[in-house]
Amino acid sequence: MHLLIPAAGLGKRMGSHRNKLLLEVLGRPLLAWTLTAIRATPAISWLGIIGQPGDFPDWQVLLAEFDFPYPTVLIPGGKTRQESVYNGLQALPDDATQVLIHDGARCLATPDLFQRCAQALENCSGFVAAIPVKDTIKIVNSTNIVTATPNRDFLWAAQTPQGFWVQELKDCHQKGRDLGLEVTDDAALFEKFDLPVQIVMGEETNLKITTPADLALAEQILKGRFNP
Ligand SMILES: Nc1ccn([C@@H]2O[C@H](COP(=O)(O)OP(=O)(O)OP(=O)(O)O)[C@@H](O)[C@H]2O)c(=O)n1
Ligand SMILES: C[C@](O)(CO)[C@H](O)COP(=O)(O)O
């Protein structure tokens, strides 16, 4: 299974002046924890890290440390996550038929989740890892007046990994780009072009590390897993 890791963000909401994936958690760069889970996932056979070229020397050090037993490549990212994934898709080898996409910033995803996601593509052409929403969600208007409370039974919080058949996803990304669509995940492009997206049960701990509070939580969770 081919796996693309978008890792080319800036981490503005983290308030850091460099890529948040370089920030240390328990003495290692955040991305190292994402790679730890990937290294322990038997289904993965090719890895592409999509990064800003300025960060490539750091990612090369990490790749050398992990010594993956399959090809690994560094791919230049774009201005948005959508552009970064587009670049990643162009860099896949010609024989790639299925691909998983996983945010570098979701450093708590487990090997079990990656493995279940890889298997999911045996039965569908597109999926998103997601968990049922726990909160009551309010829809508001432009002046923050609540206009609706949607039925929670139909609300799921999207995570990554997300996975797709490569040609279908490439076509969706190309059409989305041509039409100027802006989306925050890849499943949204599949949906826009009426392709089915299956839910795969995600993990409650599979946080996207976005703010300093997430970083502190991640540290606690990783301590529990690796330093009992
Ligand atoms: N141009 C971009 C923007 C984001 N990402 C990646 O997409 C994932 C999800 O993005 P997010 O967590 O929002 O990261 P940032 O864009 O870094 O955060 P912010 O929006 O706070 O700047 C991250 O692994 C990030 O590195 C990317 O590859 N290329
Ligand atoms: C893909 C994603 O992780 C799903 O939750 C998320 O949409 C990406 O993060 P962003 O902050 O929307 O760029």
From TrEMBL:
| A molecular function (GO) term | 2-C-methyl-D-erythritol 4-phosphate cytidylyltransferase activity
Which CDD domains does its entry note?
CDP-ME_synthetase (cd02516)
Note whether ATP-binding occurs among the keywords. Answer: no
For this protein, the record's SUPFAM superfamilies field holds: Nucleotide-diphospho-sugar transferases (SSF53448)
Q: State the source organism's domain of life.
A: Bacteria
Reaction(s) the record says it catalyses: 2-C-methyl-D-erythritol 4-phosphate + CTP + H(+) = 4-CDP-2-C-methyl-D-erythritol + diphosphate
Keyword Transmembrane present in the record's keywords: the answer is: no
Give the metabolic or biological pathway: Isoprenoid biosynthesis; isopentenyl diphosphate biosynthesis via DXP pathway; isopentenyl diphosphate from 1-deoxy-D-xylulose 5-phosphate: step 2/6
Please report the name of this protein according to its UniProt entry: 2-C-methyl-D-erythritol 4-phosphate cytidylyltransferase
Q: Which organism is it from?
A: Pseudocalidococcus azoricus BACA0444
